[in-house]
Amino acid sequence: RRVLLLGEGNFSFAAALCGARATHVVATCYESEEEAAGRGGAARSIRRLRDSGAEVVFSVDCTKLKEHFSPGEREFDRIYFNFPHCGRKAGVVKNRQLLGRFFHSCAEVLAQEGEVHVALCNGQGGTPADQPRREWHNSWQIVAVAAGAGFILSHVHPFQAETIHGYKCTGYRSQDKSFSVEGALNHIFTRSTAPPCFTPVSCETQLGSQKVSFQVPQVLVDKMNRGFLEGNSSHPVRTIKEKLSAGLSQAFPVQHISSCLPLLHQGRPSGVCHSSLFWITLSPGEAPSTEEVPQALPNTVLFPHFGQDTDKNVQEGCPVPKQFYLRPSLLPHAQAIIKNKAFPPGTLQVLSGPVFRKCRITPHSMPVFHELLVVLAVSRGTEESCVQMLVDNIKTTVNSLHQGVSGAKPSISLQEATSFGTELNDFAAFEWQLGGIQHFLCVGTEPEPSGSCVGVIRTAPDELKSCELVVVSASLNLDLLAMLLCGISDWRMLWTWDRRFLSQFPEGELRLFKSFSLYPPSYVHDVSFWVPDGEEFDEVAFHTLARKVSGETVISIELRDNFQQPGTGRRSLCYRVTFQSCDRALSCWEAAEMQLRFREEIQQQLGVTLR
């Protein structure tokens, strides 16, 4: 392991490390050898380093590391910079600039899986780990500065000088004087994954008897065909799906629908807000004929609202307009099974896959998630007991999973749809539009013991012209369940490309998630504009454009002002947009560029007039 130490004052820290096994130490300082040797104890430490086989290099500028090491010597596994400072009475701005140039220099000599350790005095870093914490403008803002060079803060812990044998800090105001390191912190940075490259992506799917391709909406480019539910996946959503299915199989005969479910539906569903759907245009020349495409959302009892008056042309027997959208639910596929009479009563049909819904930006609102849908035909009069058996089984599995992860027992409740007291989350609100809901399934964990809706239960007479059967279905949001069970606070982390996420769940084992990106910086921008006269402002489209231009780095959008101009009646809106990434480095200039593109997009796509 190659270790590089920068800015050594008296080389006492380097001397303490030089005895470590399988470690090659390269200790450096900014001063010349003559200047450095004049510090108290430095000459003795330098001799010890050289005697142990370590390299000692002088006059090394930490902002130009590439110039000091040849290409074959640049792969350092760890870089230490203890208590960096510009010298004398330099203020916070100069020291931030020093850190910025230092991190950019580190990026050129650090191994891909390497670490950068920076020790700072109490309060300097500007993170919540500092106690007491300085005001942001008066700190070195180390996490934001490192983000500009592509680094994220992965660990922070006390700098325990007393445990480092022979260590003595020096260099107070560029003098051979010590300084207080009480409360000092060691910040450990690692490389971030690269920003996503959103090149246009085409996707192929089965539509009727024909395979068609379409261009994936930009906001979903990095979320298509991820294979989280595939057999070789160790992703938490697959683990939860498998555990739930195994639990259900102990109470019911289970049949898994393993055929490839179409990604696209056709038509214009009623009862569902059309701005919540991802509308798709097929690649030129690929739209199938009307006869080849069954209506994916017929007038069915499973969806009392979804598709009742799909289109006036359908009712009159006219050709259906070729309008397609990404599936927002797996319910239509369950209905197709019923229509094909491939639905043995008493057998639980299990379907799973990603579904797509436009929604507002919040940490728990996701434009794509994995749905687990179970459907069961039971004898009329037994539906309530079957619902209870189904829910009890799900409760038992979720309880077991959560206790295995955290040792605590979650609160799981079944709430009547008519008496659901708390505000619906986006998942529940969309399911409510589909209709037919009898119960909401809520799971509560600390710090939200009141519960979040993760599933819905429906009951309805079936389509088989039978007066004896009733269809019971349960739809579960596997992504929300994974977040609650594994302590994941932001849905975006489930879709990260950083391998450190899945490495925490070896062979599908569920564990409490530990973030590898601590205290990510956030950047706030406001945007205000005039709304076109006489038009209702589509806030979901506004949020979707923010997702698109930012690559999901907008964490919140808040309406700050709604102003109507006297006399003209013109309406102006002002929103506060907060940029923050949960898994990769995001710099202030990246956020500023995204804000500029966002302003251009809303002007072009929504027809607003910027202020």
From TrEMBL:
Keyword Protein biosynthesis: yes
Localization annotation: Mitochondrion matrix
EC number in record: 6.1.1.20
InterPro entries per record: aa-tRNA-synth_II/BPL/LPL, BMT5-like, Fdx_antiC-bd, Fdx_antiC-bd_sf, SAM-dependent_MTases_sf
GO term, biological process aspect, one: translation
Listed SMART domains: FDX-ACB
Any one GO cellular component localisation term in the record: mitochondrial matrix
Domain FDX-ACB, first and last residues per copy: 518-611
Primary location recorded for the protein, binned into one broad class: mitochondrion
Keywords (A to Z) from UniProt: Aminoacyl-tRNA synthetase, ATP-binding, Ligase, Mitochondrion, Nucleotide-binding, Protein biosynthesis, Transit peptide
Catalytic reaction list: tRNA(Phe) + L-phenylalanine + ATP = L-phenylalanyl-tRNA(Phe) + AMP + diphosphate + H(+)
GO molecular function (one): ATP binding
Entry-linked SUPFAM superfamilies: Anticodon-binding domain of PheRS, S-adenosyl-L-methionine-dependent methyltransferases
Membership in a protein family: Belongs to the class-II aminoacyl-tRNA synthetase family.
Protein name (Swiss-Prot/TrEMBL): phenylalanine--tRNA ligase
Lineage: Eukaryota, Metazoa, Chordata, Craniata, Vertebrata
